[in-house]
Specification:
This protein is of the alpha+beta class. Helix content is 30%, strand content 24%. It has a seven-stranded mixed β-sheet with strand order 3-5-1-12-9-10-11, with helices on both faces. A six-stranded mixed β-sheet has the order 7-15-14-13-8-28. A four-stranded mixed β-sheet has the order 16-23-24-27, with helices on both faces. The structure holds ligand MTE and dioxothiomolybdenum(VI) ion.
Length: 742
C-alpha cells in the first residue's frame, strides 16, 4: 500500500479544464431551438396582485408565457416547509418575488418584453427590520412573524448574576452579504409529460433540486433528472436558489416543448437570490475577579426574509456556535429567525456562525477590557478542554488545545510585542495600527441528528481496465471535492489519483450523498468514499485476484479478471451514525457535531483616522482541522474564507430600500480585491480525527467565522472605537470615532 497521496498537493482534478477554458459551465451549453427564459418580478415589497398587463409593441404570440396557473403540481418550492410559491399568484411578500415567466429565442427581445409586462399590485404595509418584525408591526408570516426559535440552557444563569464581580452587556450587528460566486446562477431545462423533466445547471445540491421538481410537476422520482454542470462557486448561495430557477426553466420548457435556458446577470443575481442573514445579538456576561466567566446570556436574532427557506438551520448553527469554544458553567441562548419583506436570506459560508461568533468574540474583548484583563488572558482562563462540557451539553472528546493554537498564532504574528508597541506609537500618528484576534470553532457536518436523517450514500465502480469511478451526489464548486475524493480513494486502494475518475453529479447516475454544504463533504462523504474503496480492495484480495503488495498493473489485471468472472465490480456504502453520538432535538442538547475545526486568527490593521479607511496589513490563521488531505487546497479554503471575511468586516454593505437591494452592482457593492487582502498565512496543526477519512475533518466554512471579529478587535485596538457592527465602512467608523472623541 502506498501512503503518499494523503497530505500531498496533487493537482486539481478539473483544474486543466478550468484554466484552459474547456470546462462547460451552464451558459456554455447551447442546443438547437433553445429558448431563453426571464422572470417578471414584483415591483413592491408586499401587496395583493390585481392584474397583469402586456404592453404595446411586443409580438406576444411569439412568446411562451407561464404563470402560476400553468404549474402541473404544487405551486411551492419544496424545502424544509412549503411556504414559498414558485410563482406568486395572489400575494407578494418581497420586492423580487417571481410572478410570471417569459421565453423566446431572442434574448434581447425577451428583455424588452420583460420590461413591457405591467403587474398591478395593491400595496400592503411591509416589515423591514428585525426589530419591526419582533414588535409585530404587521403580521407577515404565521401567527407572530417567527420562523423558528431555540433555547439552549446550561446550569442556572439567573442565579449567577449575584455572585459576579462585574457584568458586561453589549449589542452587535452584522449585515447581509452577497456570495458573489464568479458564475451567476443559471439552469437549462427540457420537460414534457412523456419524457419527464431534465435540468442542467450550476448548483450545490442535486437532490434538493430533484425534490423541488418532483413536487412542482407531481411526477414520479424517476421522471426527474438533475445534472450539475461545472460550477463557478456556490458559497451557500447555490444551496437552495437553484431549485427556484430549475422550477422556472422547467415550467417554460414544459409549456414550450423546447429547451429553455435561464441565466441571471449579476444585477438580477444580486437582487433576487439569497444573501447572508443580517443579525442582531445581545450579550450579558457575568465575570469574577479572576477572569472566570460565570454566566453568559445571549439573545440572537436573524432576519430570514419573506419565506422560511433554510432559516431554521442557519439559526440552529448560529445558536450552537454563539457561546464559542469556552467552558462556562451557566449559559442561556435564546434565538429567533424572523420574517421581513425582503427576498429570503439563505446559506452563506458559515451558515449563521459568522454572525454569532462576531458578536461573541467582539464582546469578549470588551469583557476583558472591563475587567482589566488582556483579551488573551480572558480567553485562556475560559477555553474549553477535552472532557469539558460545551454550552449545549456536548462533552468534548477531541484533543483540543486552544491555548496552543493561540500561542502559535501569536508567535507567527508577533502579537504580544505589536500589541504593546502599536499602543505606544499610535499617539503621534494619524495612521493608527492595531492587532486583534478571535478564537473560535466550527462544527463539521449536519447538526445533531441531521447526518443520521440524511443517511448519505456513495458508490464506487472499477472498470475492467482498473480505473475507479467515484459516484457521489457531492458537487465540486472550487473547494476541491473531486481532488479530495480522488486522493481518498487512491490512498485506500493503493493507486494513483490519475486512476480515479469522478462521475459528474447526475441524479440518474449517482446516489444521494446529501447536499454539498455544512463543510461535510470531505469528512462525511469522503468517509463513505474511503469505505467503498476499501470494500473493492477487500473483494479483490479475498477473491485472490489481487495479492498484497500489488502495483497498478496487477490491480488492473485483477479488476479485469474479477469482472469477467463475476460481473460488475461495485461497492456501495451508506452512512452510519456513530452510536455514541446523542442529540436531543427537544432540549437542543447533546452531541451537535461529530467533530469541530478549532482556530485562532490574528489580524493586523492600519486605520487612517482622517479618512476612516481601514487596511488589513497582516493575517495569521492557525487551525486544527484533523489531517490535511491536500495542503494547497486547504490553504486555499482558508485564504478564500478570510478574503470573504474581510469583505464581511470592512466592505460588503447591502443598502436596502423597502426590502430591495439598491446597490446591486459591483461598482457600489464593494468587495475586497487583491489590493485589500494581505498575504494570509494559513497554518495547520494536524491532529488526525479517528472517524474522518484519513483523519480529516471539515474545513470549508471555519475561516469565515473568525475573520471579522479578529479585524474588529484590531480596529478597536488601533482606535479605541467600540466596534459593534460590521461592515465597518468608513462612514460607520467615522461615527464610532466621533464617539471616542466625544
Ligand atoms: N470554496 C470554493 N472555492 N467555492 C465554494 O463555493 N463553498 C463553501 C466552502 N468553500 C465554497 C468553498 C461552503 S459554503 C461550504 S459549506 C463548503 O465549501 C462546502 O464544501 P465542503 O463540504 O467540501 O467543505
Ligand atoms: Mo455552505 S453555507 O453550508 O453551503
Amino acid at each position: 500500500m502506498t501512503t503518499h497521496i494523503i497530505g500531498q498537493s496533487v493537482q486539481r482534478k478539473e483544474g486543466r479544464e478550468k484554466v484552459t477554458g474547456s470546462a462547460h459551465y451552464v451558459d456554455d451549453l447551447t442546443f438547437p431551438h433553445m429558448l431563453h427564459g426571464v422572470t417578471v418580478r414584483s415591483s413592491i415589497a408586499r401587496g395583493r396582485i390585481r392584474g397583469i398587463h402586456f404592453g404595446e409593441g411586443i409580438p406576444w404570440d411569439e412568446f411562451t408565457i407561464v404563470t402560476a396557473a400553468d404549474i402541473p403540481g404544487q405551486n411551492r418550492v419544496a424545502l424544509i416547509i412549503d411556504d414559498q410559491p414558485c410563482l406568486a399568484d395572489t400575494i407578494v411578500n418581497h420586492p423580487e418575488e417571481p410572478i410570471l415567466l417569459l421565453a423566446h429565442p431572442d434574448k434581447y427581445l425577451l428583455e424588452k418584453a420583460r420590461r413591457a409586462v405591467q403587474i398591478e399590485i395593491e400595496p400592503l404595509p411591509g416589515v423591514f427590520t428585525i426589530e419591526e418584525s419582533l414588535a409585530k408591526k404587521e403580521i407577515i408570516w404565521g401567527a407572530d412573524n417567527i420562523f423558528k426559535s431555540f433555547l439552549i440552557e446550561k446550569g442556572n444563569v439567573d442565579a449567577a448574576w449575584a455572585s459576579a464581580d462585574f457584568v458586561v452587556e453589549g449589542e452587535y450587528e452584522t449585515g447581509a452579504q452577497e456570495q458573489l460566486y464568479i458564475e451567476p446562477q443559471g439552469m437549462i431545462a427540457l420537460a414534457s409529460k412523456a419524457e419527464g423533466v431534465t435540468v442542467w445547471g450550476s448548483l450545490q445540491c442535486p437532490y434538493y433540486v430533484h425534490k423541488a421538481l418532483v413536487q412542482l410537476f407531481g411526477l414520479p422520482k424517476e421522471k426527474i433528472r438533475v445534472v450539475q454542470t461545472e460550477t463557478g462557486g456556490g458559497f451557500g448561495g447555490k444551496e437552495e436558489y437553484p431549485s427556484m430557477i430549475a422550477c422556472h426553466a422547467a415550467l417554460l420548457a414544459w409549456k414550450s416543448g423546447e429547451r429553455v435556458k435561464i441565466i441571471y446577470d449579476r444585477a438580477e443575481d444580486m437582487a433576487a437570490t439569497t444573501k447572508r442573514h443580517p443579525s442582531r445579538t445581545r450579550h450579558r456576561t457575568a465575570v469574577n475577579r479572576d477572569g472566570k466567566i460565570l454566566a453568559m446570556e445571549v439573545d440572537f436574532a436573524i432576519d430570514g426574509g419573506a419565506y422560511l427557506t433554510l432559516s431554521p438551520v442557519v439559526l440552529s448553527r448560529g445558536t450552537i456556535h454563539a457561546a464559542g469554544p469556552y467552558n462556562c458553567p451557566n449559559v442561556r441562548i435564546r434565538s429567533r429567525a424572523v420574517a421581513t419583506n425582503a427576498p429570503p436570506h439563505g446559506a452563506f459560508r458559515g451558515f449563521g456562525a459568522p454572525q454569532s461568533v462576531f458578536a461573541l468574540e467582539r464582546h469578549l474583548d470588551r469583557v476583558a477590557e472591563a475587567g482589566g484583563l488582556a483579551p488573551d488572558e480572558l480567553r485562556r482562563r475560559n477555553f474549553i478542554h477535552e472532557g469539558e462540557k460545551l454550552a449545549f451539553g456536548q462533552i468534548v472528546r477531541e484533543k483540543v488545545d486552544m491555548e496552543r493554537l493561540m500561542q502559535r498564532a501569536f508567535e507567527l504574528s508577533d502579537y504580544s510585542a505589536k500589541r504593546a508597541r502599536f499602543k505606544a506609537e499610535n499617539a503621534n500618528h494619524g495612521i493608527k495600527k492595531g492587532i486583534g484576534f478571535a478564537a473560535f470553532f466550527h462544527g463539521a457536518g449536519f447538526t445533531g441528528s441531521g447526518e443520521e436523517y440524511l443517511a448519505s450514500e456513495a458508490a464506487l465502480e472499477a472498470t475492467p481496465e482498473g480505473r475507479i469511478r467515484v459516484m457521489a451526489g457531492s458537487t465540486e464548486m472550487g473547494q476541491g471535492t473531486n481532488t479530495v475524493f480522488a486522493q481518498i480513494a487512491a490512498e485506500a486502494l493503493g493507486l494513483d489519483c490519475e486512476q480515479i475518475d469522478i462521475v459528474q453529479p447526475d441524479t440518474a447516475n449517482v446516489p444521494n450523498s446529501g447536499p454539498t454544504v455544512a463543510s461535510r463533504t470531505t469528512m462525511i462523504v469522503g468517509g463513505l468514499v474511503e469505505s467503498a474503496a476499501r470494500q473493492i480492495r477487500e473483494l479483490l484480495l479475498t477473491s485472490s485476484f489481487l495479492k498484497p503488495g500489488y502495483g497498478a498493473q496487477s490491480f488492473a489485471d485483477a479488476c479485469g479478471r474479477y469482472i469477467e468472472k463475476f460481473g460488475p465490480l461495485k461497492s456501495f456504502v451508506k452512512y452510519e451514525h456513530p452510536r455514541d453520538l446523542h442529540w436531543d432535538d427537544e432540549k437542543y442538547q447533546g452531541d451537535a457535531y461529530g467533530a469541530y475545526g478549532w482556530a485562532v486568527y490574528v489580524a493586523e490593521v492600519s486605520v487612517d483616522t482622517r479618512t476612516a479607511e481601514i487596511h488589513v496589513d497582516d493575517f495569521v490563521a492557525v487551525q486544527e482541522v484533523g489531517k490535511v488531505i491536500n495542503p494547497i487546497l486547504a490553504a486555499g479554503q482558508v485564504e478564500g474564507g478570510v478574503a470573504q471575511g474581510i469583505g464581511l468586516a470592512l466592505y460588503e454593505n447591502v443598502v436596502w430600500h423597502e426590502g430591495r437591494m439598491v446597490n446591486g452592482q459591483m461598482t457600489n457593492y464593494i468587495m475586497p480585491t487583491s489590493m485589500d487582502v494581505p498575504t494570509i498565512r494559513a497554518v495547520f496543526e494536524e491532529i488526525p480525527y479517528g472517524r474522518g477519512p484519513a483523519g480529516a475533518k471539515g474545513i470549508g466554512e471555519l475561516p469565515l467565522d473568525g475573520t471579522a471579529p479578529a479585524i474588529a478587535n484590531a480596529i478597536a485596538h488601533a482606535t479605541g472605537a467600540d466596534i459593534t457592527r460590521v461592515p465597518v465602512t468608513p462612514e460607520v467608523l467615522f461615527e464610532m470615532l466621533e464617539q471616542v472623541h466625544a
